[in-house]
Write a structure and sequence with these properties.
The strands form two sheets. The protein has a three-stranded antiparallel sheet, with helices on one face. By secondary structure, the chain is an alpha+beta fold. The protein starts with 9 loop residues before the first strand and ends with a strand. The C terminus is likely disordered.
């Protein structure tokens, strides 16, 4: 597939559900990252799909591709007129993954902790439960 793409070409394929098929997602994404300089996992809600979510694996031959940012920019009024579901915030949110998925697909290293942009410190509440609070040292 990579060789069939023109320069700047992208591939988008069904990426299964992070709740049901995480080992498969990891395997496919690991393979894709060997072939493409950019390979990302995203998901959206689909009420009729098992677990209510479906994922996508997106790959690009262009190392400057940022799938997380919509290419076409529209005003909120245009979005409301044109789309029942999609908007720029939904697009960006599709790439915000839960920690268990980020760990599994290698987007964060468990030994290194969370990326600097998302630093939190765990505290133990008086009930013994662990709660996260913003890290005040950053």
């Amino acid at each position: 597939m990579r060789d069939a793409l023109r320069d700047g070409g992208i591939v988008s394929t069904q990426g299964e559900c992070q709740w049901l098929h995480l080992p498969l997602i990891k395997e496919v994404l690991t393979f894709a990252r060997k072939l493409f300089p950019v390979a990302e996992y995203a998901y959206t809600t689909i009420p009729t799909y098992p677990s209510g979510q479906i994922g996508f694996i997106l790959c690009s031959k262009d190392k400057t591709t940022n799938f997380k940012v919509p290419l076409r920019r529209m005003s909120p009024e245009q979005e409301l007129k044109l789309f029942k579901y999609y908007n720029a915030d939904i697009h960006r949110a599709a790439f915000v993954l839960p920690n268990f998925t980020r760990l599994a697909i290698g987007d964060i290293d468990q030994s290194a902790g969370a990326p600097a942009a998302a630093t939190t410190a765990a505290t133990t509440t008086n009930t013994g439960a662990t709660a996260a609070k913003p890290d005040e040292s950053s």
